[in-house]
Design goal:
heterodimer, A: alpha+beta, OB fold (Dihydrolipoamide Acetyltransferase, E2P), six-stranded antiparallel sheet, three-stranded antiparallel sheet, 9 strands, 19% helix, B: alpha+beta, Gyrase A, domain 2, Elongation Factor Tu (Ef-tu), domain 3, 2 domains, six-stranded mixed sheet, six-stranded antiparallel beta barrel, 8 helices, 20% helix, globular
């Protein structure tokens, strides 16, 4: 699993990358009440703001961590946005991307490096 | 403002010890939430009891120089469109300081305590309010800021049981009653009121006893400390205005749907008609209505519509959200907005623009949740 400075985690599943936010980020956000996800089959570029997370406190944007195509989004979050607080690192993943150039992931942090950053 | 410059209430250490996340509010370092989190703190207050530190708010005594409380009442009536003279001893009511344009300088609570009036005003406005009263009615009243007392609120269905276990006379009080009650040798100034829509009390306690009193409340079954985050979502569900967001100098009491605060005796034809700043405009709007009105907004979807969200009727811009978020008890997004009078009827279908996208909303009755007061 890889981690970005924007508190996203990326997990490689075959030729897809699964993206979510870290438990640290979900704690900072507070109770999540709404998640807006991109449409599947959307081409995105690194840095595009494609997810909106609304917590009881504020709205936050999540950017595409790499270039690629959104192939699947987690519809369970529409009915149960609180899943982000309960299981940020697992069942509360946001989207799966097809990434042309997997070497884009090399620059991201390991779990240890991420934990050092947020400590 | 640097954190070091922030003021602290007497309960600061207690908040930190309970794991509060502290934020700046009105110049004070205040708890926005505790480890429970905003959502659970909100729901806990609605189901049991929540303890709030509102010591940052302004407590002010208005003492009539004549010694007659009716003179203080009449003096204050020159600043608010509210009947203060009819306020009986031991009772409290909601009031608004208005300006010459009919706008709202602040909202406040006024209690008749026999030989003087006791006021609770917003933290952010207290210095302005005190200066305003000294300037306008200082010849008739002594304006005495109460700085040696903290202010706590205990709110929720268990509030009566919790407070009356410490001071038994609290149970006999009705909504908007005020009383001086003794907890041991500590004098408490108690009102049965609050800012959540729940039954509950606000309690003024000497600074020196604030911590021990708060700890005694927190020891009772079902009491949790509650931060400003849940205080905001609770008052939003209760349809109550936040000064600076939902009302300010650019909104009149009629636009703000606060006509209920203006008793007949101060309206056109009443015995003490007018005689407050902005009376011309406010009396005219009481007769004929205002061109815009504060309403409840229920988004049809799940996305919260926060302050600043623009409201449209077709292609026409008709209003703006002034407070909005998620209502944990309503279990959905809720907002308050000012909309054009012709769009203000309950049930009107409008659109709110969130992140560039128009999303359907319905004009809804306020409050979003019925009050639970013990009248």
């Amino acid at each position: 699993m890889k981690f970005t400075e924007d508190h996203e985690w990326l997990n490689v599943e075959g030729d897809l990358v699964v993206v979510g936010i870290t438990e640290h980020a979900s704690t900072q956000l507070g109770d999540v009440v709404f998640v807006e996800l991109p449409e599947p089959e959307t081409q995105v570029s690194k840095g595009d703001e494609i997810v909106v997370i609304e917590s009881v406190k504020a709205a936050s944007d999540i950017a595409a961590p790499v270039d690629g195509e959104i192939v699947e989004v987690n519809d369970a979050l529409a009915d149960n946005p609180g899943l982000v607080n309960e299981d940020a690192m697992g069942s509360a993943w946001f989207f799966k991307m097809k990434v042309e150039d997997m070497s884009q992931l090399d620059a991201f942090m390991s779990e240890d490096e991420y934990n050092d950053m947020v400590e | 403002m640097k954190m070091a410059d922030l003021l602290r209430t007497p309960l600061y250490d207690l908040h930190v010890a309970h794991g509060a996340k502290m934020v700046e509010f009105a110049g004070y370092d205040m708890p926005v939430q505790y480890p429970l989190g905003v959502m659970k703190e909100h729901l806990h207050t609605r189901s049991a009891a929540g303890l709030f530190d509102v010591s940052h708010m302004g407590q002010v005594i208005l003492k009539p120089k004549s010694g007659e409380v009716s003179d203080a009442a009449l003096a204050l009536e020159s600043l608010v469109p509210v009947s203060i003279l009819a306020l009986a001893e031991g009772r409290q009511r909601y009031a608004l300081f208005t300006n010459d344009e009919g706008g709202v300088l602040d909202d406040l609570m006024v209690a008749n305590r026999g030989d003087h009036l006791f006021l609770v005003v917003n933290a952010s406005m207290k210095h302005d309010d005190i200066a305003h009263m000294e300037r306008e009615i200082g010849d008739r009243c002594e304006v005495v800021p109460v700085t040696d007392r903290a202010l706590l609120a205990i709110q929720g269905p268990s509030a009566e049981a919790v407070l009356s276990s410490l001071v038994s006379q609290a149970a006999a009080m009705k909504f908007m009653d005020v009383a001086v009650l003794n907890w041991g040798d500590v004098e408490l100034w108690v009102s049965r009121s609050g800012y959540t829509g729940e039954d509950g009390y606000e309690i003024s306690v000497p600074n020196a006893s604030a911590v021990s009193f708060a700890e005694a409340l927190l020891k009772q079954v079902g009491v949790e400390p509650i931060g400003l985050g849940a205080r905001d979502s609770l008052r939003l569900e209760a349809g109550m205005c936040l000064y600076g967001s939902d009302i300010d100098t650019t909104t009149t009491p009629v636009e703000a749907a606060l006509e209920w605060a203006v008793q007949k005796v101060r309206r056109t034809g009443g015995a003490r008609e007018g005689g407050f700043p902005g009376a011309n405009r406010i009396l005219e709007e009481l007769e004929n209505g205002a061109s815009r009105r504060r309403v409840g907004i229920l988004p049809d979807g799940r996305a919260p519509m926060r302050a600043g969200t623009e409201i449209f009727d077709g292609d026409t811009h008709v209003g703006t959200v002034t407070s909005g978020g998620f209502g944990p008890t309503v279990e959905g997004p809720i907002s308050m907005a000012y909309v054009a009078a012709e769009c203000a009827e309950i049930g009107t279908k409008l659109d709110g623009e969130v992140r560039g996208k128009r999303q359907p909303v319905t004009v809804a009755e306020l409050p979003f949740r019925a009050p639970q007061y013990k009248r």
